[in-house]
Design brief:
Two copies of one chain form a homodimer. Chain A is built from eight helices and eight strands, in the order αααββαααββαβββαβ. By secondary structure, chain A is an alpha+beta fold. Chain A has a six-stranded antiparallel sheet. Chain A has a two-stranded antiparallel ribbon with strand order 1-2. The radius of gyration of chain A is 19 Å and the shape is globular. In chain A, 33% of the residues are buried. The interface between A and B is medium-sized, with 17 and 17 residues. The complex binds manganese (II) ion (MN) (4 copies). The site of one manganese (II) ion (MN) has 5 residues of chain B, from helix 4 and helix 5. Chain A binds a DNA duplex (30 and 30 nucleotides) through helix 3.
Chain lengths: 230, 230
Amino acid sequence: MLSFTEENYLKSIIQLTIFDDDITEVGVNKLAENLGVKPATVSDMVRKLKDKGLVNYQRYGKVSLTKEGQLKGMLVVRRHRLWETFLQEKLGFNWDEVHELAEELEHIHSKKLIDRLDNFLDNPSFDPHGDAIPNAQGEIIIPYRKTLSEGEDGKSYKIVAVKDNSPEFLKYVNRLNLAIGDKVSVVSKESFDQSMTIHFKDENKVVTPKFSENVFVVCSHCNKAKECKC
Amino acid sequence: MLSFTEENYLKSIIQLTIFDDDITEVGVNKLAENLGVKPATVSDMVRKLKDKGLVNYQRYGKVSLTKEGQLKGMLVVRRHRLWETFLQEKLGFNWDEVHELAEELEHIHSKKLIDRLDNFLDNPSFDPHGDAIPNAQGEIIIPYRKTLSEGEDGKSYKIVAVKDNSPEFLKYVNRLNLAIGDKVSVVSKESFDQSMTIHFKDENKVVTPKFSENVFVVCSHCNKAKECKC
DNA sequence: TAATAAAGTTAGGCTAGACTAACTAATAAG
DNA sequence: CTTATTAGTTAGTCTAGCCTAACTTTATTA
Ligand SMILES: [Mn+2]
Ligand SMILES: [Mn+2]
Ligand SMILES: [Mn+2]
Ligand SMILES: [Mn+2]
């Protein structure tokens, strides 16, 4: 049975590799920063995880997940995202509140509990932030999405997810009166500073790249990001 | 913020004092046994809890809860019993499975979460084992109950709770085909070994004191344990 | 290619929460 | 009232997970 800490390491490695544009390995310093600990601490732990067969690693090398490490990590992600969904769907929490609570709930191990929760929620495919929920086998299908910042002038998009999950960002999205599923069209892009004018709900608004780079979209007509010929 | 361990100590002290026939203090050895650790460990921790103002204690003395310790402990009990209720009511777990899971869930602190859970469950008064659920202020009303072993010949009772919460005991109750809310009448008591013949669902069955001492009942007519004149 | 910077490791130390072994205080029995 | 028993404490040790400071390896850049 893995400790909270070990699970958080695996989850962090997943975020920095599998979930980050198909990079397959990550350095100790980056991992340390992501986990909010010092590199020295990660050095130790990563050796421990290697001894347990959860990561591939050798001195001065990069870290990646083994098959088993990935499975265990994905199950943490599964629990996290199912609890987030529960908190929003059943207890009425806002999408900017669920992450923090899920950080605790994700460490409750019972497979039976989590599979029943899944069922209770009608086997959701996505969490409140639009992120895919891994299945009970730890498999995940991440649909291809692009960021709003990649959008083209005049085209219409549907918001499917957000990259940044911080309460600050999510509350800003709330204030803009936008949510997952909403449609926005790109009016114009300013090449000087990457600011963008977008149109939604009968209004034009200017957003910074900090916003548009953190919003995932697909074509509002064909629901695709790649290979859209609309 | 209290650690898991500290919370477990407070909960344990509650169980051994407030919930155990109004005894008000408990010794280090008993506490150690209840927590599954050695007395030396408890000696240390109890001093720490005293320094934090959560227990009354002095060297070689007994341990009891301060006002604050009792409040904090009762909130753990509240969380425990609400999660047990959730697991049974919403996720369809059996009453013999919920305790173990609640042991983990009870340590998730968010007040907002637990109050919303309470609301989601329609503010239940009792958990799956018939135990009262403390309110958000840590107050609890424990109705007066007697054990089936105290029952009188020929009288009819309603099962309101169980004392032993172990899966073994609860599964035995299941096999007897009994549950909270069921009516049983006492046919006869054997003074030699305290065995009891009880009648329910058109059947007579003999039960040992190990059973009858762990089942709480009230009069099936007036719903009282004390002052019943039926 | 040599110097410098960045990345990563090691050694030693800290705290929480557990343990064992040896001790001391309180209580019960004779 | 003295002794034996039980209850409780202390000292020292261990592990997990963190830290800092000093060091080493790898990568970058002149
Ligand atoms: Mn999250
Ligand atoms: Mn999420
Ligand atoms: Mn319980
Ligand atoms: Mn219970």
